[in-house]
Design a protein that fits this description.
With 228 residues, this protein is of the alpha+beta class. The chain is built from six helices and seven strands. The strands form two sheets. The protein has a five-stranded mixed β-sheet. A two-stranded antiparallel sheet has the order 1-2.
């Protein structure tokens, strides 16, 4: 991708994450501005979540055993269950290269950070969980990418169970099972999506898709902008 600045033309390789791929699915033009041109920034703040940074507080509870505030007391059973199941890794950063090899996070081609990971090495299996606070809309895509990243970076893991940890309900969401034998077809699926985005011209406007999330989108140049 060629990005133009006032001083010079800069070549910047495109990197992907579940968040950027999801943004492209919602609205390609939104993804172009937020993750390629970077001329607008996401307008999300903890105030929109009731003034509480849920992810940070849950990370501190798991990492440093700091008590959860009353507003997050309902998450304590989740936390205790995770702690009893094994050693919990929090905010685990994972990435792979363009040819599906392990990578450091910052130079990675596809990368992600996952809220909670538990590995059972003797059984060659792991669990990935992601805290969710919005409206309950089940999808395994983020967990699928996480399972793929984990198995590539840890060859001792052959199966991963993933779940969205919805804070609005008493229990995790649908469990999703991913196996090592699925790595190649999963990578083909996601690679096609990433390559299609790379082939589009970032200097031209992309498709604009109007939807319910337009109210939160910061791209003020879009015809569907609603003050997000």
């Amino acid at each position: 991708f060629i990005l133009r600045t006032r001083r010079a033309t800069v070549l910047k390789p495109l990197q992907f994450s579940y968040t950027s791929l999801s943004a492209h699915e919602q609205c390609p033009e939104k993804m172009r501005h937020l993750y390629i041109l970077r001329d607008f920034k996401s307008s999300y703040t903890s105030e929109k979540d009731g003034g509480i940074d849920h992810h940070k507080l849950l990370e501190q509870r798991l990492r440093y055993h700091q008590p959860l505030p009353a507003a997050l007391a309902k998450a304590e059973p989740y936390v205790v269950s995770l702690e009893q199941s094994g050693e919990v890794e929090v905010e685990l950063a994972l990435a792979v290269t363009r040819d599906l090899q392990p990578s450091g996070f910052w130079p990675g081609y596809l990368r992600g950070k996952y809220d909670v990971v538990v590995r059972w090495l003797e059984q060659r299996k792991a669990f990935i969980g992601d805290w969710k606070t919005g409206n309950i809309r089940e999808s395994g895509d983020q967990l699928e990418i996480g399972a793929m990243l984990l198995m590539v970076n840890d060859p001792t893991i052959d199966s991963v169970v993933g779940a969205n940890l919805w804070l609005q309900k008493p229990g995790p969401g649908i469990p999703y099972l991913f196996m090592r034998r699925q790595l190649e077809p999963l990578w083909v699926k996601w690679s096609k999506r990433m390559q299609a985005i790379e082939q589009a011209d970032p200097a031209m406007e992309w498709e604009k898709r109007e939807g319910p999330l337009c109210s939160y989108c910061p791209v003020a140049t879009c015809t569907h902008y609603r003050g997000g």
